[in-house]
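Dock iron/sulfur cluster; give full complex structure.
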Amino acid sequence: MESSSSILKELTLESVKADIYSRNNPTLTPIDIEFYATTVHRILELKKKHNAVILGHNYMEPLVFGLSEQGEQGDSLGLSMSAVQTDSEFIIFNGVRFMAETAKILNPNKRVLIADKTAGCSLADDFRAEDVRILKEQYPGVPVMIYINSYADAKAECDVCCTSANAEQIAMSMPGDELIFVPDLYFAQNLEKVLEDKKKILYPGKNNSAKGAVCEVHEKFSLEDIISIRKSFKINKEDPNRMMYVHWECKPEVLQEADYYGSTTQIRNDIAHRVASGNLEKAFIASECELTSNLMEEFPSVEFATACSVRCNHMAKISLNKIQPILEAIDSGDDLSQWEVKLSEETIKRASNPIERMLSLSF
Ligand code: SF4
């Protein structure tokens, strides 16, 4: 995909429009492009003027995703790591609040801003630090691994953090035969199955009174949906040119039906690998629908089936019209507190321990 870096060489309204049209994204109609081009142009102009970094999660709608250059796009951890490498004072995080928090924990001296602080996540919103304490009391001495989709106060109670890309590896790196995993109940059951005979996975609600959570988007996919999509889009199991991709956060029976399961980045990389070898004709991704919209643009040779009723309402809160005022406020020197992520020094210190431990085990 052509990134906005090419626009930045010559940033006019016409060059911005030409760039968006050239992306040939099937989800972007001329009506949308003409309607939003002025806003995109203004955002990119101010981004350049103030050397701001705009990080874009894969689940952002294409016009928002396109505000980020290639090195600024990715999953939550990749984006936070990109933030560490920047010398920019302002980091605008186009994702949900727990992701902006992670960026702040890893970049305590930078100003991290999010277009809508109410952009939550059912996994993070429905899980409390108190539930970690319940589990630690019930299973003394057993290490606790927490999914990155959680808030800083819950992370602060845990031994190590993980993402969907490294959960297996981090779990196996932790000492002992048992591991507590929070908060995602489906992810926990999927991990339990994959690590069977290697490590016992304990999680909320399994013989304990702690309460876990699920992703309200990925849980929408049922086994029947996957079987019916296979039939209607002719994504046959034995055909290596047709792939059914499933995200870790889906139900166990859905994961078992996948041709490939993994994190957002792993799924994207598998598609890239197959496209490079000329081996991918059709694909369906059981995940957030704008991920597919962005991959359609990146891999035009692949025919993707989509289910755009499966949209994350939290991610959808981040829109062009809410991003522009942040940059206008930076430009005029106005107060940024309505967008700025603030965490106490103590929380940053405690929540950074499990994240740093994950990073030391990952690289
Ligand atoms: S897709 Fe699911 S895990 Fe991701 S932000 Fe939305 S609710 Fe949270």
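Observed: The chain is about 45% helix and 15% strand.
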